[in-house]
Design goal:
It is a single chain. This protein has about 375 residues and is α+β, with helices and mostly antiparallel strands. It contains 13 helices and 18 strands. Strands 7, 8, 9, 10, 11 and 12 form a six-stranded antiparallel sheet that branches. Strands 13-15-14-16-17-18 form a six-stranded mixed sheet, with helices on both faces. A four-stranded antiparallel sheet has the order 1-6-2-3, with helices on one face. The structure holds guanosine-5'-diphosphate (GDP) and manganese (II) ion. Guanosine-5'-diphosphate binds near residues 54, 122, 187, 188 and 201.
Length: about 375
């Protein structure tokens, strides 16, 4: 789960990292009042959980409170890389002398964290990393040892950051451990014209496994990047939004992953996928179908179930009940195999729903569902 910039900023501030004065609002009128409080000139920043806001028009300087209101009105409600802007943060502008990049990120393969830092921070950091990798320092961090002043000094030295950033690097590690984060990133960390080191932007990704003890973010913090992901999580389902047109439901991660591949192999793109796990009960199936079908990008749905502990007849009962509660408007292709497959198929045949077809093989189902999605 990602935090919003203003939440990351709050964490930074609590751990003694200097940040610009700022306030958040969803109202252009209040944006004007906030700008007045902050001294008139402000940076208006879209609060969306995606990077590259600056280049997408989500970070704008406003010269006075009236301009702040206008700019907030312009930015609120717009779409930034697929995210609707619900709130803006107004921040006191900072006179930037230098922009740095610093982050800690979990390196799963190495079983460690990685400190990534560069003296060439700012909106072009990806470009810098791609074209001049030597300008980006990568220092492993032992999670048990953490970032001591000595480690921080090594990171700063390797990246060519000024010595004054050492303290920030130590504090940023405290943010990571305190928040149970998998990633904390500051880009840019700046040196101001008058020599202060400040965090001008922040990204924090929390470890969902620690959600039980990171309760402070409440409903907002728990918000998923996609409203349907949130609806699915609320029902205990594993749903992932993708950007194609075929909705995919399966039981078990392995089957779902191979279903994605087979659909892609038939020339269609998965719109999403949902793993209903081992207990494919009627309720789970109807919850799952309602989530998949509420995605407007979905043109057809592939239900791919291999009956095991939950037999196919129970799954078919689930689908039939789901058809009555969810009332699909898009075609479904169902492939049932495994335990009690014949009984399951008979149940679906008996229901004879006009939008539901069955296929006996996974490949056959995939090519059919791909055709339904692309014609
Ligand atoms: P991002 O594009 O989503 O990473 O948003 P950022 O908050 O990092 O802002 C993008 C860029 O806008 C930064 O790299 C800065 O160059 C610039 N910027 C943001 N805040 C300020 C500010 O207070 N003063 C100045 N001069 N530039 C700013
Ligand atoms: Mn940034």
């Amino acid at each position: 789960m990602d935090l919003y910039e203003h939440q990351a900023r709050q964490l930074f501030e609590e751990h003694g990292i200097v940040v610009p004065r700022a306030e958040v609002t969803d109202s252009p009128k209040r944006a004007r009042e906030i700008a007045r409080r902050l001294g008139g000139r402000v940076v208006v920043k879209a609060q969306v959980k995606t990077g590259g806001r600056g280049k997408a028009g989500g970070v704008k300087l406003a010269a006075d409170p009236a301009a702040a209101e206008l700019t907030a009105r312009q930015i609120l409600g717009t779409d930034i890389k697929g995210h609707t802007v619900g709130t803006v943060m107004l921040a006191q502008p900072v006179d930037i002398a230098e922009e740095f990049y610093v982050s800690y990120v979990l390196d799963r393969a190495a079983g460690r964290f990685l400190a990534i830092a560069s003296a060439q921070g700012g909106t072009e950091i990806e470009e810098v990393a791609a074209t001049r990798p030597e300008a980006v320092a990568r220092i492993p961090v032992d999670p048990a040892e953490g970032v001591t002043s000595a480690t921080a000094a090594r990171i700063a030295e390797a990246a060519g950051l000024p010595p004054r950033t050492v303290d920030v690097l130590v504090r940023l590690w405290e943010v990571l451990t305190r928040a149970d984060a998998l990633l904390v990133e500051v880009n840019p960390l700046v040196r101001t014209g008058d020599g202060r080191i400040m965090a001008l932007d922040g990204k924090v990704t929390l470890d969902d496994n620690a959600r039980f003890r990171q309760t402070r973010w409440g409903a907002e913090g728990a918000a998923h990047d996609d409203p349907l992901e949130e609806a699915a999580a609320a029902k205990g389902l594993n749903y992932v939004k993708l950007d194609g047109e075929v909705g995919i439901i399966g039981n078990g991660a392995g089957l779902v992953m191979s279903t994605l591949d087979v659909v892609a192999g038939c020339g269609a793109r998965p719109a999403n996928f949902l793993d209903i796990g081992g207990g494919a009960s009627a309720q789970v199936m109807s919850d799952g179908l309602s989530v998949i079908l509420s995605d407007p990008a979905v043109k057809s749905v592939f239900v791919n179930v291999f009956g095991g502990i939950t037999a196919c007849d129970a799954v078919a009962d689930g689908i039939v009940r789901a058809l009555d509660t969810v009332r699909p408007t898009k075609p479904l292709v169902v492939r049932l195999d495994g335990n009690n497959a014949a009984r399951g198929r008979a149940i679906l045949d008996a229901r004879a729903h006009p939008l539901v077809e069955q296929a006996t093989t996974m490949d056959g189902a995939a090519s059919r569902v791909a055709r339904l999605a692309t014609t």
